[in-house]
Amino acid sequence: MAAGTSRKISAASARSHTRKPKPKTSSKFPGMFKSVLLVGLMGFLAWAYQATKPPPPKICGSTDGPPVTASRIQLKDGRYLAYQEYGVPKDIAKHKIVFVHGFDSCRHDVSAITSYLSPDIVESKGIYIVSFDRPGYGESDPHPTRTLKSLAFDIEELADQLGLGSKFYVIGFSMGGQIGWTCLKYIPHRLAGAALIAPVANYWWPGIPSNMSQKAFDQQLAQDQWALRVAHYVPWLNYWWNAQKLFPCLSLIAHSPRVLSNHDKELMPRVVSIRKEYQALVRQQGEFESLHRDIMIGFGKWEFDPTDLKNAFSGSEVSVHLWQGDEDMLVPVALQRYIANQLPWIKYHEVSGVGHMFPFADGMADSIIQALVA
Predict the structure, then answer these.
(1) Confidence class of residue 310 from pLDDT cuts 50, 70 and 90?
(2) Angle, in degrees to the nearest 10, between helices 148-161 and 175-186
(3) What's the predicted TM-score (pTM) here?
(4) Could you report the per-residue pLDDT of 205-249, keeping only the tens digit for each?
(5) Phi, psi of 237 (to 5 degrees)
(6) How many CA atoms lie within 13 A of 340 on its CB side?
(7) What is the sign, positive or negative, of the torsion defined by CA atoms of 237, 241, 244, 245?
(8) What's the chain look like in SS3?
(9) CA dihedral 268, 274, 275, 276 (to 10 degrees)
(10) CB within 8 A of 30, min separation 6: which ones?
(11) InterPro entries of this UniProt entry (predicted)?
(12) Closest CA to 195 of 118, 279, 110
C-alpha cells in the first residue's frame, strides 16, 4: 500500500466548497430611476422653453387682433405705423415736431406736451406736432428685429411720408427721450432741433464712470435692479422674468407708485384723468413686443455711446435741449448732469423740486416748446 500525506479539512471549509454559488440578480431600479430622471428633465426643459417663449402679438387688423382706428402709414418693410396730429395744419406750420412717447405709453401720450400747451403759442409760433405709436405699442405693428438705428429711421420715414420737409424737430419723453440720442446719432442732418425730456440713461454705457453708474443703479428698487440685470445680461429670459409670479417684475410694468417722487404724486391725478381714455390701447397687442422689447433695447448693449456724440450742428442754428428734474426717482439726476457735462453743446435745463412727470406741470410745456423753436 502506498504511503501518502493526508490533510485535515474543517467542517466549515468543507461546507464552503460544496455550497452552490448564488445566482447574481440585477436590480431594475437604477435603470428605471435613470429613465424617470431623463423624462423629468425633458419635461422640465420643455416647460422652461415654453415659459421663456412669449406668446405671439395680437396685431391690429388681424383676425384675432384689435381693430385699426388710427391713421397709419406703411413703411418700406411692410410694417404699419400709427400716428396722430396736433396743432396747426402742417401745410402752414412754421415748426414741425415729431413727438416720441415713453415706456408703457402710446401716441396719445403727447398729452404730456399738448394738454397744457398754451393755444397762443401754438398759433403764434405755428406749431404742428405728430405723435406716433412706437413698434408694438398702440396700433403700430411689432418689429421683432428692431434696433436703436431702426427706430431713428422709422421717425425719418414717418416725416417723409407726411411731407414734413427736409428738417423737423424731435421731442422725446423718458424712454422716448432715450431714442432722441439715436436721432442725434443716425439722422442729425434731418433735425431742426431736439428736446430730450428726462431721457432714460443706460447704466451700462461705457462713457459713464463705473462708480457713478453703480451708485445710481443701487438707488433703484431691488426689483428693478434685478429686472434690468435680466434685460441686459440674459435678454432671452426677459419675458419669463416679467411674466412669472415668483419674484416682483419691473415696477413700471406693475404700475407701482414706489417710483414716484412727491411732485409726481401731486401730478398723478392730472395724469390719470388724461390717460384713462386711452390706457387700454397701450398694451393691446401684447406686452412682449412693446414693454419687454423696450427694456431689452434700452438697457441692452448699445451700438454707440451717447457720451461720445459729436456736435453735428456746429455753426448752425440747430439747438439740442436736455430737460431733467432734480428729484426724478426713475432717471438719476447725477447721470444726466454727467452726460450734459460731457456734451457742452447741449443746453441743459435742470428743474428744481420736480420728478419724472414734470412736463405735466403748469407752464412746463410752454417752456419746452419755446426753448426748442426760439
Answers:
(1) very high
(2) 80
(3) 0.87
(4) 999 999 999 999 999 999 999 999 999 999 999 999 999 888 899
(5) -100, 0
(6) 21
(7) positive
(8) CCCCCCCCCCHHHHHHHHCCCCCCCCCCHHHHHHHHHHHHHHHHHHHHHHHHCCCCCCCCCCCCCCCCCCEEEECCCCCEEEEEEEECCCCCCCEEEEEECCCCCCHHHHHHHHCCCCHHHHHHHCEEEEEECCCCCCCCCCCCCCCHHHHHHHHHHHHHHCCCCCCEEEEEECHHHHHHHHHHHHCHHHEEEEEEECCCCCCCCCCCCHHHHHHHHHCCCHHHHHHHHHHHHCHHHHHHHHHCCCCCCCCCCCCCHHHCCHHHHHHHHHHHHHHCCCHHHHCCCCCHHHHHHHHHHHCCCCCCCHHHCCCCCCCCCCEEEEEEECCCCCCCHHHHHHHHHHCCCCEEEEECCCCCCHHHCCCHHHHHHHHHHC
(9) 100
(10) none
(11) AB_hydrolase_1, AB_hydrolase_fold
(12) 110
Predicted local confidence at residue 52, as pLDDT: 77
Give per-residue pLDDT as tens, 6-52: 455 554 454 445 555 555 555 555 666 665 655 555 554 444 555 67
Give Cα separations from 23 to 14, 19, 190, 266, 311 (angstroms).
20, 12, 89, 85, 88
CA 88, 92, 94, 100 dihedral sign is positive
The mean of the pLDDT values for the chain is 90
Amino acid at 328: D
CA 195/CA 173 separation, integer angstroms: 8
pLDDT in tens, 76-129: 999 999 999 999 999 999 999 999 999 999 999 999 999 999 999 999 999 999
- Residue 158 contacts by C-beta under 8 Å, 6 or more apart in sequence? 73, 81, 83, 98, 130, 132
